[in-house]
Amino acid sequence: KAKAAGRNTLMFFNPAMAEEMLERHEIEVDLRKACEDGTLELYYQPILDLRTGEIVSREALMRWQHPTRGMVSAGLFIPVAEQSGLIAAIGDWAIRQACKDAASWESHVGVSVNVSPLQFREPRRIVETVKDALIASGLNSRRLTLEVTESLLIEDNKTTLGVIDELRTLGVTFALDDFGTGYSSLAYLSTYPFAQVKIDQSFTRTVHSSEASKAIIEAVCQLARRLSMNVVVEGIETEQQRIAVQLLGAQRAQGYLFGRPEPLANFLPRKDRNVA
Ligand code: C2E
Ligand code: MG
Ligand code: MG
Ligand code: MG
């Protein structure tokens, strides 16, 4: 926070900040343990084709069964993992686990894994991790999508494109996540070889109250179609939102209306459950 305030601002250290720092530190210590004792889990949320109503893919979302805090959502601990460097190990684990899990479900259903920009700072590592995960799981590489955010594209350059290209050669596809929340340069969509763009849930939430949200969803869907990318609209919670985004041209959707993130065991066919 102090950094964001700019270098000419004098920030006083107040009790709220001290508490926040302590909490971060505590989360970091616990998270380091969690990496070792296997209390991190992947939950999966379905992504549907709006025309057919079928599940086409599932997004892996990390959860942490914390000893005292209960189930902690990724939004809370991923930033801590990024700041502490733990994201490299956690990110590797997520890729391997998601490939293994996806290999146990319907063979026509893909899997999407979120990847932190920091994981691209070790280009060899992420490429090797993905290769190993595909081989170890036997998952067809075409079923794997890696989700990245715009912050990755702002920092780089050649290394990022190199990693993306190398992984695409293997058959892996890329999705641009949370589109519309960052710099959202339309140029990213043509510069980088994304197969998918995910429109952020903030547009879904305001689809009925804001003409701008409607216009943006519609424009991104049209552009994506011209560039042969598919669009996923995130955060669909109501039937009215589903109808609205479908009319605006969305092909795919994700959100609580269709399913919350759930552990693998909840949706795996019964006969497969004990092998997972
Ligand atoms: P994301 O990739 O944009 O994931 C979507 C987030 O929206 C998830 O939050 C999901 O639980 C939530 N969500 C889905 N449908 C709805 C809905 O209908 N309404 C509302 N209000 N929310 C919905 P979650 O699981 O807390 O994850 C937050 C973020 O943390 C993710 O955003 C992603 O950027 C990051 N993340 C999650 N798992 C991983 C991971 O394994 N690795 C990395 N690097 N980041 C991860
Ligand atoms: Mg995502
Ligand atoms: Mg998103
Ligand atoms: Mg997000």
From TrEMBL:
- Per UniProt, residues of the EAL domain are 24-275
Gene Ontology molecular function: any one: catalytic activity
Name of the molecule in the record:
Diguanylate cyclase
Provide the organism lineage as a comma list.
Answer: Bacteria, Pseudomonadati, Pseudomonadota, Alphaproteobacteria, Hyphomicrobiales
Q: Which residues of the full protein are shown?
A: 284 to 559 of 559
